[in-house]
Design a protein that fits this description.
Blueprint lengths: L1 H20 L10 E5 L2 E3 L2 E3 L1 E6 L6 E7 L10 H9 L3 E5 L19 H16 L4 E11 L1 H12 L6 E5 L5 H8 L17 H5 L17 E6 L8 H9 L3 E6 L8 H19 L2
Parallel strand pairs: 5-6, 5-7, 7-8, 8-9, 9-10
Antiparallel strand pairs: 1-4, 2-3, 4-6
Helix pairs in contact: 2-8, 3-4
Amino acid sequence: MKRIFITLSVIISCFTAAVAGTPVDHSKTYAFHTDTVYVQRDGLKIFGIAYIPEGQYEEWPLVIYAHGIGSNHSAGEPYAKALAEKGYVAYTFDFCGSSPRSKSDGKTEDMTIFTEKQDLTAIISSLKSKSYVDASRTYLLGISLGGLVSSITSASMPDAIRNLALVYPALCAPDDARKNYNPDGSRKDPNARIMGGEDYNKAMLQFDPFEHIGHYTKPVFIVHGTEDRLVPITYSERAITVFPDARLEKIEGAGHGFRGEPLEKAVKLMVAQFNEWESK
């Protein structure tokens, strides 16, 4: 009896090890559940939701969704649900001070692209340590300003990010800041409407993202609408000449902030691209 028990234990252990080391089958559809996951960064608490697939695998690839300015984690729900159903842990979160709707700590007047980079770096480190995550298969999905932040974060820690996906990344943000501010930080027109706070704009006056993003040499996939007036598609067209390995998918007639059919198309494109990366 003791010998039988030992044999069964060995079989179970071998099966568990095999499942743990088996690549996830992304052709299947999985049920998933959500968990609230907080991350700490310099005494600040970052709120996020993890969409976790349910199935025979112990570890799943991770996709971290980074939202745009004035938005929050909820904007990532369509992407997160679609990814979780195909076998990815998807994590959506609120940048600190990103908007009045943020559930994370921090004040909106303190937020800059560099504080958001610190948030994202802390999240990458924390989520990689989760028992249900395959840390070697960590991806970023950045939207608008979150795309700019994801780009410079990936460039600063390329070994940590397997691939980078972007949707109308706001690589124009520093140029926009320079349109409204003089080099000394004074406003050109105090009555003009500006995006973000004083610190947010002043922090970018001497910053050129195109001098940094090319340090990320792994494959990059960008989706952008041809009628985007907030973030002109010319910035993504330039980006694919700066990233050493990048591809741009244009959605004809779509503006900024996808809704309806353009959003559905972008979600499908992203899931397909992650599946292609996973197959290599």
